[in-house]
Amino acid sequence: MQLGDDLVGFLDRMSTVINSKMNKIMDKMEDPRETLDYSYEKQLELLQNVKRGVAEVTTSKKRLELQKAKIQESIDKMDVQSREAVKIGRDDLAKTALERKVALQAQAQSLDMQIADLNDQQQKLIAAESRLATKVESFRAKKETIKAQYTAAEAQTKITESVTGISEEMADVGMAIQRAEDKTEQMKARSAALDELLESGVLEDYSGGDEIEKELSKAKASSDVDAQLAKLKQDAGK
Amino acid sequence: MIVRILGEGQFEVESSLADRLNAIDNKIVEHVNKGNQKEFKNDLAKMISTIKEKGEPIDPVDILPSDIIVPPEDLTLEEARKVFRGEGLIED
User: Fold this and answer.
1) Is the minimum CB–CB distance between B92 and chain A shorter than 8 Å?
2) How many CB pairs below 8 A link A and B?
3) What is the pLDDT of residues B64-85, one digit of tens each?
4) How far is A10 from chain B (nearest CA, A)?
5) d(Cα A50, Cα A124) in Å, to the nearest integer?
């Protein structure tokens, strides 16, 4: 901050970053009369980009939510199986099911955090889109006024003012889109890795739980047989 | 004065708030230098909440340049380092 402090603060650096982005946006504008129209065109492009950004974040979020639902299903299954195992006295099977459940819960937790993160990005981008849309409309009206009412010299000042103001907004929104994209890219990679795990069977062990199921029904059948045998013996003894 | 929180729009705040923001800003510089992740996050969050608490959001219809630009709340320490190295937040 340039507030009488000699220290070059973080906020100063941040302004430098944004200024250099703004300059890049404004550098391309040479002829002042064309500047307004050119900037407006760029604003409309950026507005399209934000919309695409929102759609992308939404898709990524849905994908993670689907994975989360799958994992939750498996957690519920492990839960049922561990209870059944305890009922028939197979603590070993119950333990295996619980171990798997805990591992799946860790996955679910990490997915929850990523979903919350994406949700945050989504809400922020939607708000940024709405702010930018309002500003673009406001700029359009201003641009027509400037063209119609001011002399060349006066117009120059007005043009600089409004183009500087809107360029700052554009630099901000452009950065927000880029960061959201980087985030969804990272999550896409992680989510693809998780899909691969689910498919390859590493997690299948955790999620399918088919062997536990088999063991359980075997154990159940044998305890049925024992019970019937006991009954037969009882009957014969009579 | 007008403050822009990146990704969240602009706020009008009293100029008297500048000292307070400046103090937090200096702390943030220290945290980045020392690599104190947790303190960095806390103070950045504090700066942003102070602005939101004390400031009024500016109507998006108004097209105004900002006096101060504040990074987004989810900025990582690594990203902050990049800002200090003059590399910007993201690649151009």
Assistant:
1) yes
2) 102
3) 999 999 999 989 998 888 887 7
4) 6
5) 11
Whether the complex's predicted ipTM surpasses the cut of 0.95: no
Is residue B23 within 8 Å of residue A122, measured between CB atoms? no
Per-10-residue mean pLDDT, chain A, length 238? 52 82 70 80 94 94 92 91 90 90 91 93 94 95 86 79 89 91 85 75 54 80 81 82
> Which residue is associated with the tokens 């199986």?
A81
Dmax (CA) of chain B: 41
Q: B10 to chain A: nearest residue by CA?
A: A169
What A217-225 contacts at long range (C-beta under 8 Å, 24+ apart), as own/partner pairs, is A219/A85, A219/A88, A219/A90, A219/A93, A220/A84, A220/A88, A223/A88, A223/A89
* Cβ proximity of B77 and B32 under 8 Å: yes
Q: Kindly determine whether residue A175 and residue B90, on different chains, have CB atoms separated by under 8 Å.
A: yes
Residue of B nearest to A164 (CA): B65
Residues of A in contact with B30 (CB under 8 A): none
As a whole number of angstroms, the distance between CA A167 and CA A26 comes to 7
- Chain B contact set for A113 (CB, 8 A): none
Q: Are strands B68-70 and B2-5 parallel, antiparallel or unpaired?
A: parallel
* Shortest alpha-carbon distance between residue A72 and chain B (Å): 28
Report the distance separating Cα A57 and Cα A54, nearest Å: 5
Residue contact B72–A9, C-beta within 8 A: no
Chain B residues with beta carbon closer than 8 angstroms to that of A7: 26, 29
Distance from CA of A108 to the nearest CA of B (A): 22
Q: What is the end-to-end Cα distance of chain A in Å, rounded? A: 98
Look at phi and psi of residue A235 and say left if phi exceeds 0, alpha if psi is from -120 to 50, else beta: alpha
- What token pair was written down for A138? 């406001």
d(CA A126, CA A80): 41
